[in-house]
Request: fold
Amino acid sequence: MAKKVNDHQIPQTDSIVELAHFWDTHDLTDFEDQLEEVTAPVFERETKVTVHLQPNEVQAVKKIAASKGVADTELIRQWVLEKLQLSQAS
Reply:
């Protein structure tokens, strides 16, 4: 059976959401002629850091985060980034 000619292109985007939607609705084997082997990492993974806090400190962070309408982890991330900016400015 002859393989049909594919006149569609793989999207050129960095959006994981767009790529996921594309591959959810297309078959990889239809694009074999457009594929290339990649040896370097394509997506950088975040590095996670564990911060040990006392229960009362956790509750204080959660309360502040709730008052700002953000997740507690996002608030802590914002604080760390602010400190990094201040330390790099000096």
